[in-house]
Design goal:
six-stranded parallel β-sheet; 3 domains; Rossmann fold; 594 residues; alpha/beta
Length: 594
């Protein structure tokens, strides 16, 4: 960077575009980034070395950088940042960018690009990452001039973190990074057409309160938007308890209210609890806060909650009535809507007698008592994965951050873990990305070094990104990993059991019981500088978990050898009505007995 005096006598900060990029990230408050250098992004990495404000974590694969940025963002609410070079470096970020888009995770992905004059010539490691990611980002920027850099950085972080959060791509050509510019901060942002919702419509809020007061069978349908909005637990609790209605929480919202709250029915949908699914099916009013009626919740959409009116609150107007028509649509920030709706309900309840809901609460309690979420043991003598997770849960402190991969273990974790505070549950929901777990846990631990971070992973998921254990070891990021090792692609195998006549085509991974164990996960962990443990007997589970909890100077991996025959229950098969939910003991849902 060069300083000189302009004609006004003030300091002029002349620097390269790469230096301006580093400086812009510092000015915006970035303290941690995850990435891997390469030719097209190398000009940025040179001044980054001198930064005293930004810690760079060198990953082993760019997908790991993207998922780590997601984990960082989900654990803190701040924008996560990942960096890659052009071509394959950039395309390796695509899965993580798509994952962040589906789950509304605030993330900025920085990529290098070939020189602007070489674009379109099939230059070495050229890829149109802007075009590739356009369908699943909030915005993509191709930056070709050093003068643009501060403004584009400010705009990217504003877009990623406001409204409905999501990923934003910044693609910097090499000449933009090496060219010179005069640095100014803060820059002027220019985002025509991008506007945030104002205060919620008070007439709609009043209509919602009237509908709630008139409802005899209301249910709250709470979604991940509550987490993204940062709605205080106290405010959400006040609304739920004022209304007194039972609530369900989607896969991305399991930690928005305490698991043990007396009105909590658990997760709805394909693998939801019978109580949650049944309550939604029998409701006369669904109060939807930050959820989007995705197919995993609704089942066959035209059979979902046939008798219910819908209040739908979301910051993204595109989600309102996209799947299910909203009777009371409210576009707004949930941090504004929740207290406004609480005040309106309080006023409505004081003005007129509300409908009686005691009978409804009794009915829901009966369903919950009749159909608890439990499991039946397999007869192969191996550990039951559900039991392992309950032991992990009991041994964990209340401030633990739980992360999962995707599949059966993810659903079991959703059912058997307990949460007491927000930002305690990280999982890939909308995209269902195998390989999410290890790097996401790494990002969460980097963000929250004083909180324990446990990853519950599958033997399939773990093998996709386990190389990031090396990153954890070398950067003092001591995550703990519980591999629920059923030696198979468990969820796929479950579908083969139920729908394909037990024809197990290409789902055996040869990692667990009765196999040669390729790989041996305990030895693999040790090769990466982590502690590797294995547990095969129920009487050893608590001791092995205690060993893991006592180690805090390096990563720990426990290989739990569990039954491949264990299945996730309840279950609604794809494409059918939620009325056809199946329970572990094969019983019919209570609402079918009318």
């Amino acid at each position: 960077m060069v300083r000189d005096r302009g004609s006004s006598g003030q300091d002029r900060q002349v620097m390269t575009g790469a230096q301006a990029l580093v400086r812009s990230l510092e000015e915006i408050g970035v303290t941690d980034i995850f990435g891997m250098p390469g030719g097209a992004i190398l000009p940025f990495y040179d001044p980054l070395l001198a930064s005293e404000k930004i810690r760079h974590v060198l990953v082993r694969h760019e997908q790991g950088a993207g998922h780590a940025a997601e984990g960082y963002a989900m654990a803190t609410g701040r924008v996560g940042v990942c960096v890659a070079t052009s071509g394959p470096g950039a395309t390796n970020l695509v899965t993580a960018i798509g994952d962040a888009h589906m789950d509304s995770v605030p993330m900025v992905a920085i990529t290098g690009q070939v020189g602007s004059t070489a674009i379109g010539t099939d230059a070495f490691q050229e890829a149109d990452i802007v075009g590739s990611t356009m369908p699943f980002v909030k915005h993509s920027f191709l930056v070709t001039s050093a003068d643009e850099i501060p403004g584009r950085v400010a705009e990217a972080f504003h877009l990623a973190s406001t409204g409905r959060p999501g990923p934003v791509l910044l693609d910097f050509t090499k000449d933009a990074q090496v060219g010179e510019t005069e640095f100014h901060w803060p820059p002027r942002m220019d985002l025509p057409g991008y506007s945030l919702p104002g205060r919620p419509n008070q007439r709609r809020i009043a209509q919602a309160a009237e509908a709630i007061a008139a409802s005899e069978r209301p249910v709250f349908y709470l979604g991940g938007g509550l987490n993204r909005a940062g709605v205080p637990v106290e405010q959400l609790t006040e609304l739920v308890e004022l209304v007194g209605a039972p609530f369900t929480t989607t896969l991305t919202a399991l930690d928005v209210l305490p698991t043990n709250h007396q009105l909590n029915l658990g997760m709805p949908g394909m693998h939801g609890t019978v109580a949650a699914v049944g309550a939604l099916q029998r409701a006369d009013l669904i109060i939807t806060l930050g959820a989007r009626f995705d197919d995993r919740v609704t089942g066959k959409p035209d059979t979902f909650a046939r008798h219910a009116a819908v209040i739908h609150v979301d910051i993204d107007p595109a989600e309102i009535s996209k799947i299910r028509a909203a009777d009371v649509p409210i576009v707004g920030d949930l941090k504004d809507v929740v207290p406004a709706l609480t005040a309106a309900c309080r006023e409505q309840f004081a003005a007129e007698p509300r409908a009686e809901i005691d009978q409804w609460l009794t009915e829901v309690a009966h369903i919950r008592a009749t159909y608890p979420t439990d499991w039946t043991d397999t007869d192969d003598g191996l550990l039951q994965p559900q039991e392992v997770i309950t032991h992990l849960d009991k041994a964990a402190s209340e401030d633990t951050i739980w992360v999962t991969g995707v599949g059966q273990h993810q659903m079991w974790a959703a059912h058997y873990l307990h949460f007491n505070r927000p930002h305690s549950w990280l999982t890939s929901a909308g995209a269902g990305t195998m390989g999410y777990g290890v790097p996401a846990a790494m990002g969460a631990k980097e963000a929250c070094p004083d909180r324990p971070v446990w990853l519950i992973d599958g033997d399939g998921c773990f093998q996709m990104t386990n190389q990031e254990l090396a990153t954890c070891t070398l950067n003092n990021i001591p995550i703990k990993v519980a591999i629920i090792n059923n030696s198979s692609l468990g969820m796929v195998r479950q579908w083969q059991t139920l729908f394909y006549g037990e024809r197990y085509s290409n789902t055996d991974l040869h990692t667990g019981a009765g196999t040669e164990r390729i790989p041996d996960f305990a030895k693999l962990a040790e090769a990466y500088g982590a502690v590797g443990l294995r547990c095969e007997r129920l009487e050893d589970v608590d001791d092995v978990i205690a060993q893991a909890n006592a180690i805090n100077d390096r990563p720990v991996v426990i290989d739990f050898i569990v039954s491949a025959d264990a299945q996730v229950w309840p279950m609604v098969a794809a494409g059918v009505s939620n009325d056809e939910i199946q329970h572990a003991r094969g019983m019919s849902p209570a609402w079918e007995e009318e």
